[in-house]
Write the structure tokens for this entry.
Amino acid sequence: MKKIDPKELKPNVIELISDRWMLVTAGAPDNFNTMTASWGAVGELWGKPVAFVFIRPQRYTHEFVEKNDMLTLSFFAEEYRSALKFCGAHSGRDTDKAAKTGLTPAPTESGSTTFAEADIVLECRKLYKDEIKPESFTDKTIIDKWYPARDFHTAYIVEIVNAWIAE
Ligand SMILES: Cc1cc2nc3c(=O)[nH]c(=O)nc-3n(C[C@H](O)[C@H](O)[C@H](O)COP(=O)(O)O)c2cc1C
């Protein structure tokens, strides 16, 4: 992998997140969890390159993101679509996602976890979190459409401290 400035990220990031999806992973390689996400954003805030990640409270990954300062966002080529589907349809509470998908956990500089098969990796540090609140929606139609179970996401703003792309 080659380290790049996050500003050099080539694919359109909306397409990258919403169409290719990503794995959100927190924890060390010997104790991590990962899940698929297709909602999020990348941009700039507080003078830093940042990403926005949204995780519903019932996800096992939520526990790992809560107890770790760092997380990774990992992107994959199309051939890994079925692995990402698996990680988005099963919980790490009752299955070993790496074993089931064949993805290979790999440590990052900070001791967090990504996967050897990823072709773009963003290593991120938590800066801010908040719960999505029903009273804060200016468009209330979103509430019934996306939160019939009232399981409002936790929104995390994370600093992108390292970005790597496959060489
Ligand atoms: C394409 C796709 C996108 C997803 N995006 C999100 C997301 O942005 N936030 C979220 O909380 N869950 C999202 N999910 C659901 C989680 O990936 C799913 O519930 C997963 O099984 C959680 O695993 P865990 O319990 O091991 O954390 C998505 C699932 C898929 C298939």
Summary: The pocket of flavin mononucleotide is lined by residues 21, 33, 35-39, 54-56, 59-61, 85, 88-93 (CB under 6 Å). The radius of gyration is 15 Å.
